[in-house]
Amino acid sequence: MANEPRSNNKDFKKNDQQAEGDGFQDRVVHIARVAKVVKGGRRFSFSALVCVGDGKGRVGFGLGKAGEVPDAIKKGADQAKKNLLKVFISPEGTIPFDVTGKFGAAKVIMFPAKKGTGTIAGGAVRIICELAGIQDIVCKVHGTKNYHSVVRATVNGLNQLVSPDDYAAARGKTLAEVLQVRGAKKKKASVKTGDKK
């Protein structure tokens, strides 16, 4: 009997990723203890920033506040499920083109990557990309490293993603004209300099 609470606490500490019955997983990005100053002193509570995703292109985030940590996480997860975003992921398991997400002083630059690269990102960006189901991506955070700002900037960037077909149709071009080929500009420049010689 004495060992049961200890095992429960151990499970809670490992609550990095938790599978839900509806196919969603939730991950805690950040937990903060916040204080409200009242006449008699301070009242302490906890705020939890939680991200939720199904690994198939749907992801969301939410902020929960409560007197206890588990309650704050549950509120955050419920809030995240109400604000789900559909992310376009290419068949190769990466994003279709370079994108920059911004929120406040945070700027998150995301690049598509070759198969087998994995998720090269830090902190909150990695959590969101993994929950969304993006397998290969390279990200860099500029500006503030505030968890809330980084999460919102990442979601802002993922929200800009569209399929190449839709993007080409919106610009009135063919798919071949809008597809990015890495290093194409460098090759053209080297060819031009070679012609001059």
Task: Record the SSE blueprint.
Layout: H1 3-13, E1 18-19, E2 25-38, E3 41-53, E4 58-66, H2 69-82, E5 85-86, E6 99-103, E7 106-112, E8 119-120, H3 123-132, E9 137-143, H4 147-159, H5 164-171, H6 175-178, H7 184-196
Parallel strand pairs: 8-9
Antiparallel strand pairs: 1-2, 2-3, 3-4, 4-5, 6-7, 7-9
Helix pairs in contact: 3-4
In short:
The chain has 197 residues and is an alpha+beta fold. Helix content is 37%, strand content 31%. 27% of the residues are buried.
Strand order in the sheet with the most strands? 1-2-3-4-5
Topology as a string of helices (H) and strands (E): HEEEEHEEEEHEHHHH
Shape by Cα distribution? elongated
CATH topology of the largest domain: Ribosomal Protein S5, domain 2
Structural class: alpha+beta
Count of β-strands: 9
Quaternary state of this entry equals single chain
**Low-pLDDT windows of residues:** 1-15
